[in-house]
Amino acid sequence: MTDTPVSTSPLPAPSVPSEPQHGRLDSSALGLRSVLFCIVTGAAPMTAMLFNVPVAVMGGGYAAPAAFLLATVALTVFSVGYIAMSRRVTSTGGFYTFISRGLGRITGVGSGVLIALCYIVFSAAVIGVMGYFAATSVEEWTGWSIPVAVYMFGGLAVMSLLAWFHIELTAKVLGVLLVSEVLVLLVLGAGVLFEGGAHGFSAAPMNPAELFGNDDATKVFGSAAAGVALFAAFWSWVGFEMAPNYAEESRDPHKIAALATYGSVIGLGVFYMFVSYMFVTGWGLPESVQAVKDQFEGKFASAFYPLSDRYVGSPLTTAMEVLAITSSFACAMAFYNTGARYLFSLGREGVLPSVLARTSRRHSPIVASMTVTGALALYVLGFVLYDSSAEGALLKLGTWSPLLGVLGILGVQALASAAIIRYFLTTARDGFHWFTTLVAPVIGGAAMVGACYLLVDNRTVLAAADVPFITYLPWIVLAMFLAGVVIAVVLRSRSPEKYAALGHFTLADPDPDGPANEPAAVAS
After folding, report:
1. 230-267: pLDDT as tens digits
2. What is the 3-state secondary structure (H, E, C) of 482-517?
3. What angle do the packed helices 64-88 and 95-103 form, to 10 degrees?
């Protein structure tokens, strides 16, 4: 790829949009703040708390905050090696690029296809959550019972429209929503803290041992599952690893990736632990489990709303209801953007049709984005036909889909840990460090494998065991990975030159498939 010539005229050229370049994004679109907005709104603090805390309580009882503590530790350790890799590898391919350079192209392409599909699934899931909160809140406010599908497809239409514009516009929209939802949750937490909760404060909710065999959750729900609590916790962070995906659009990619990743993991961890602790403390430890059951039985849209009424007042509750909708939209939009960037990267390197690498005049990956729109429309339509109710949007589309996506992303993170280790032991030995590129990835990878096991083992707690989507969940994830593997194998046979460039866009480093000192292919 040749650089665009720079004008040497003494007079400044008029400021006009540059021509789109095939396979190229705007390299100066985002600063640290904008990248953080894109990442943290992907985690969607409001949606994460209103939806995931009740799920965590259902699995781990009042020890839900301990699940967020364990996830914070695991993801922080994982991030150590991940950031070390991001300093060497700058590409919008994210996990796909990292795994390709550490474990080889076949494993990398399998992971890339899997993670791209997972982000599309995540976006669909949060569209379902958005539809649920919109339908229930609007009916409460106005008495109008509008089908949940109207809200879901309306939200998708707005996302598709925003995708035509420069990524900085999206970052600004996401940033405004992010600040608002964080402030509202902090006010609620402060209210509970000031009043001393229902029965005072206890250290028990922060004790990881309380997650396993929680009696209160077992009594109310008939079973307790630490895997479900951990699923809800890890689901709350999905998107934290997006920093390298925005690297090509960042002004200082190496510095921004590290700051944004650590900032989002640790910052969100502290925030999630605080809010979830205030939730169980505000209700009372045993009472919090019953409150979640009441929510799932439809007595109120969210177990957070009665807490807000009690400790702060109805104006804050109304603000939470509004932000639950906008937060879900922002989260779905962030996943939409990341899914599009994975498709863009895979199209640019020939794994998927090259048309996916086309950009608009505003440097957005427009063809990949519209492809995501089409895939989301079909996926959401399938769930609407299965169950068109608002509860179905939340408890089926919004709950079953993340099970699939979280299992996939945890598996990819485990592979990424292995890729980091091999990359620094072979192709980048000058950057090897005993802790950051060996011990930390080993611990982080082991944590991801353990979380995968608990999720698969406990998945039927969230849905009936005879639901095919749940029964075959692990095999669906494996099939998505193998689809990418097949594509890579076919490319290796039919187009060796294209295969040689996979996972190596704009980087001249050694080849992970060959001898340690073999130079890699550089895309041009």
Report:
1. 998 998 888 776 655 555 555 555 566 677 778 888 88
2. HHHHHHHHHHHHHCHHHHHCCCCCCCCCECCCCCCC
3. 60
Which residues, other chains included, contact 179 with Cβ-Cβ below 8 Å and sequence gap of 6+? none
The Cβ of residue 27 has, within 10 Å, a number of other Cβ atoms equal to 14
Which carries the bigger pLDDT value, residue 218 or residue 319?
319
Any bridge partners for residue 65, and if so which?
Answer: none
For residue 9 the two structure tokens come to 């005229």
Locate 399 and state its tokens: 């709950």
Q: What are the backbone angles phi and psi of residue 364, rounded to the nearest 5°?
A: -90, 145
User: What integer is the mean pLDDT of 404-408?
Assistant: 93
* Higher-confidence position of 466 and 132: 132
List % helix, strand, coil for the chain (3-state, nearest 5): 75, 0, 25
Nearest to residue 329, comparing CAs of 476, 137, 475?
137
Whether the CB-CB separation of 236 and 48 falls below 8 Å is answered with yes
Sequential DSSP letters for 376-422: HHHHHHHHHHH--SHHHIIIIIHHHHHHHHHHHHHHHHHHHHHHHHH
Helices (H) and strands (E) in the chain, counts: 21, 0
Show Cβ contacts of residue 311 under 8 Å, excluding neighbours closer than 6 positions: 188, 191, 192, 194, 195, 282
CB neighbours (10 Å) of residue 519?
11
- Residue from 398, 404, 402, 405 nearest 383 by CA: 398
SS3 19: coil
User: Please, which residues bridge with residue 519 across strands?
Assistant: 510
Contact 427, 510 (CB under 8 A): yes
d(CA 224, CA 206): 17
Q: How far is Cα 148 from Cα 134, in angstroms, rounded to an integer?
A: 8
Beta bridge partners of 250: 30
Give which of 402, 266, 420 is closest to 331, Cα–Cα: 402
**pLDDT given for residue 248 in this prediction:** 53
Tokens 């957005």 locate to: 364
Q: With beta carbons less than 8 A apart as the criterion, state whether 413 and 240 touch.
A: no
Residue 156, pLDDT above cutoff 90: yes
* pTM passes above 0.90: no
Cα–Cα–Cα angle for 431, 436, 438, rounded to 5 degrees: 90
Rg for the chain (alpha carbons), in Å? 23
Residue 111 CA to residue 481 CA, distance in Å, equals 6
Angle, alpha carbons 412-94-425 (nearest 5°): 75
Instruction: In whole angstroms, give the CA distance from residue 34 to residue 246.
Output: 10
